[in-house]
Amino acid sequence: MILALALAAAGWIPFHALEVTRAGGAGPAVFLKRVAPGDTFSLSFVHSVEKSPVTDYFRIDGDCRIILYQTEFSSLNTGLPAVVSEGEIFERTDRGFRLSGLSRVLPEIQLQVSKAYGGTLAMAGEEVFLPALAGDGPLLISVRRVFAWELLSRVLRA
Known about the structure:
Shape: globular
Order of helices and strands: HEEEEEEEEEEHEH
Number of strands: 11
Largest sheet: 7 strands, antiparallel
Radius of gyration: 18 Å
Number of domains: 1
Helix content: 10-25%
Strand order of the largest sheet: 6-7-5-4-3-9-10
Strand content: over 45%
Structural class: alpha+beta
């Protein structure tokens, strides 16, 4: 009896999770994974105008916010970074260009995904092709507080 009560109570322990939802936040999450300060993830896609690969790198800070800390891209044309702010480092790499030293707080990430342009989320050794989860269209990526039972229910359904 005590064990059952303890397990039930544990389900109400709050955690932070990286959540991906369709259509700018409407509907149920298509991806939900627990995160903690220091965790990192990346988003890779093909730039819709330049038709070149882009990878953005993010970390979860001490307040469980999303921080863009680096971006890599192969072109310097329309819609890609061209200005470097103080403290940022722009360098040429064997695959194109890298802008690092960033510390941009993003309350959420709005991302348009399609099979034609991809959209891959990589986190903790796992890669998720976002159009396979949610189809073509807008996605909203954010960090929110969830309860243990929400994470457990997703694991049990998988």
